[in-house]
Each structure stands twice: as structure tokens, then as C-alpha cells.
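Usage

Read records sequentially. Each one opens with the input sequence:
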Amino acid sequence: MTMNEPIKNRYDFVVLFEVTNGNPNGDPDAGNMPRLDPETGLGLVTDVCLKRKIRNYVEVAKEDEQGYRIYIKENVPLNRSDQEALKYIGAEEVKGLKKKDPEADRKIRDFMCSNFYDIRTFGAVMTTFVTGALNCGQVRGPVQLGFARSIDPIAPQEITITRTAITTEKDAENKKTEMGRKYIVPYGLYRVEGYISANLARKVTGFSEADLEILWQAIINMFEHDHSAARGNMAVRELVVFKHETELGCCPAYKLFDCVRAELKDKSREPRSYEDYDVTVDEDKIPQGVTCIRKI
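and closes with the structure output:
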């Protein structure tokens, strides 16, 4: 099998990442406070946030290399990329299209999947083509992530800060500093689980072995090129990959996820570093036909 052929094995994976003195994913409906489950106090990070980090890494690493461009990115309207697909199938074909043309929709879908890494990976909803007569619909990507959830409850802190930058001339006449606020999580270890469908890769997007290697690199390094004062220190600590021998898999994903455990060494004190945890993978419980690979 070559690196450009669609993957032939199903994968499930677990990622553990940490945040120190930062806000991993602010909630705009709560004044940008770190997201949390109100019943348990566990911190949350959305799948959309994590996919953004992966997209950003691929964009930095590949720099718009053919086949590795990013469809969903800041300050670029989707229709701008859609226009490229219209040109690809030919302007004369566009004029003669009926309301529904499955063959044209397929050509557009294949063009978008082959050119944009994030569509090939995560899928996309492509119903906004400017002609109104084309619609290749929702493309289901083979790679899916859930929400990340912290291992233990987090304790968000609101920090008051002062700044010397005054907003207006009038304010500058009366004061030399202004007050501001920011939220931080002193320390949190988060866990997210993911799935990779070889079946969807083969039937829909063509997600390949080369794409898979880029994905692992992007997950491991997704915070390395995204540092900011607001997010504090964030780092991926574990990437545990379960490779199935078959396309449809050898067992349910939950059985594999249950093999990965992160537990506090001393439950009498709050965690403040990764070393406060014991992280284990119970390989004796992994069913036959599945291989465990710890990438970091």
C-alpha cells in the first residue's frame, strides 16, 4: 500500500493535554470564562477548538502545498474556495446545470477533498456554492473528535490586571492606567477521544496514510505554534493510538478507551503538574486484533 492510498485500518485514539495558568477555551456566553460542566466542575474544550489547532498546524507546516490547503480559516470566505471548484468543472458546464446534478456535485466533492486537507480529514458542509444550482452537500470526514474533558475538577480564577495603554484621549487626562480582567486555570489535565473510519476514508474523502501521519504530527504539535498569554502553557502529553487489523474494527471503541487511565497520585491535594498523575495503558485488556501505539 502506498502513502497516497486511502487508509485500510480503523483507528481510535486518546489524547491527554495540559494547561497551566491559561484559558484553554473561553465561553463567550460566560464572559470568556473557561468552559466547564456546572454539575461536576470538570473543564471542557470543544471539538471545534481542537480542530482549529490541527488546521493551524497543517497550514503552518505545509504552507498551502498542493493537496494540503485549509478550507476553513480566518478571513477567507468559503465561497472564494468554492469558486475554484466551479472553474475546475468548467464554466460552460455550470451554465447548463439543472437544480440537481449528481455528477457535477460528485466532481466538486472530489476536487474539494483532493485539494483541502481539512475537508479530507474532518469533512465539511458545502451547500453555499454561489451559483445556487450546485450542492455537494455534507461530506462526512473519517476523523472525528469529541469534547475534551478535564480529569479532575478545575478551579478557574479571575485575575485583575493593570495596563498602561489608555483607550481614549479623555481618559488619558484623568488616569495613567486602566484595569482589566482575565481568566486562568491554574492547572488542568484534559482528555479527548477520537475516531478514524477507514470505511469513510475509502468511500468518501480518500484520507490516506500520508494524511494520517500529518494528523499525528498535528495533534502532537497543535499547541506548539499557538502559544499566547491568554492560553498560558499548553502541551500534549500523551497520544495513545489503537490500530485495528480491519477496516470496520475488531471491537467497540469504549473498550479501548477504558484501557487508558489517568489518576492522581495524591488525592488529598490539587493537581499542579503532569507529574501529579499516574498515566497507564492496560495492554492486557486490549482485545485481539488491535495494536496499541503510544506516539509520545
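Summary fields computed downstream for this record:
- The two ends are 25 Å apart (CA to CA).
- Residues 11-65+140-155+182-294 form one domain.
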